[in-house]
Amino acid sequence: MPSDPIWKRLPFARLGVLVVVLLVAGEQFPLTRLPMYATFGPTADYYYVADATGQPLACAMVFGTSTANVKKMFRARLNALVAPRGADETTATPAERLQAGEELITYLRTTGLAAHAAVPAGPVRLVRVEVRRALTGGFAQTEELLAEK
Amino acid sequence: MLFMRAICAWLMWRMLPETLPFTTQPLPNGLAHFVNLTFLGDPAIFATFRHLAPVALVLFALGVVPLLSLGFMAALLTGVGALENSQGAIGHHLQILCLVAIAQWLAYAVELKQCGLRIAKCGLLPPIDVHRRATQAAKLMLAAGYVTSGLTKLIASDGQWVAQLPNISLQLVKSHANVFYDTLVPEPAWSAALPRLIAEHPNLTRLAFTPGLLLELGAFLALTGRRASLGVGLALLAMHVLAREVMDLGFLAHEWLLVIYFINVPWLVCIALKWFSKAGKSE
């Protein structure tokens, strides 16, 4: 009834159960905690793809997926690769990062072709850029070549 | 509720991809742990499902056999989303729509079970009360999603979310770079100026963004009545529009689900018509 107090009109039990289930289950589609922008660290990073000369390529056009997805896919592959030895992306070796990067470029070519995207014939570079606040104001950006294939 | 279901059906169609170029699930996620969903990546199979979708959506919009019509769409969208998320990149554009569809389907299933001997009639053309309860289930799921999102921010940041907010400037630099490197179309000049402005004014940033967290945590208030639902819905929609404009972060399904279930346009139209009718009589 609309005249009831607010707490009587709320389905607390059902709401509570749903929230607990979503929080406990985590990222298991279709369940999710909706963790977008849940933390803001002192650094951020983004990825892009480029040709062999370092000229950036429009990722969504050439591979049919976004650079945000490229980042997630690289991290997921790297974590899966190093997990058997108890490591994670922060403790992966350069060789492991290279392997995950090359595997990702191969995967991007395959799915890009299946999606009829304009996949380039020549070598492709996968680049990571770390962003942090500069001491002098503004932002400092550091590039890292992860793989070329 | 016909209008609500019709817009929801349109949204489901809008969120269904035209193609699904995934023939493997290298890192299975969610439903993909239990079902090998790669059959959806077969162009012929996916095209068949996509051709069946409009039939299911029209039936759902008309309120006909929702267990089958909505069930088909809920299963298809969940399968698509799980296969997409099994490529190693977890996206969040489809979960809330799938959860809302599943919540409504469960509401129909529970009601059908209680129909007893009238099960065939109830299943084919459920009475309006059943549709009403399905709508309530959708609202509950939507509210639970926002509350969960708010709590996740507090848990993941160890309660430091508001304190960390000035670092959102780095996320802005990142998201604008993402958009640029997707298409190589230059971003507007303000996209470089805004992160600097945010970094230089930490307390103003906290003042501007903290209401978003409070709104998410208080989204359950939308369940207390139509007016509260309208208020919460409009405020959350404004938050999404702001995030889309400032951070290039669009959450189409979230925005439309708010319009459908919280803002409730048909009810607003009824109120407006009554108001105009009263105003006309008093003149």
Please provide a written account of the structure.
The complex is a heterodimer of chains A (149) and B (283). Chain A contains 5 helices and 3 strands; from the N terminus they run ααβαααββ. Chain A has 149 residues and is α+β, with helices and mostly antiparallel strands. In chain A, a hairpin with a 5-residue loop joins strand 2 (124-133) and strand 3. In chain A, helix 4 crosses helix 5 (94-114). Chain B has 2 domains: 1-126, no CATH class; 158-283, no CATH class. Chain B is 73% helix and 0% strand. Chain B is built from 13 helices and no strands. Chain B has helices at 2-15, 43-62, 66-84, 95-113, 119-124, 128-156, 161-164, 168-183, 190-200, 202-217, 226-247, 252-263, 265-282. In chain B, helix 8 packs antiparallel against helix 9 (190-200). Chains A and B meet through helix 2, strand 1, helix 3, helix 4 and helix 5 of A and helix 3, helix 4, helix 6, helix 8 and helix 9 of B.
Summarize the structure.
With 149 residues, chain A is of the alpha+beta class. Chain A has helices at 6-9, 12-25, 59-62, 67-82, 94-114, and strands at 43-51, 124-133, 139-148. In chain A, strand 2 (124-133) and strand 3 (139-148) form a beta hairpin.
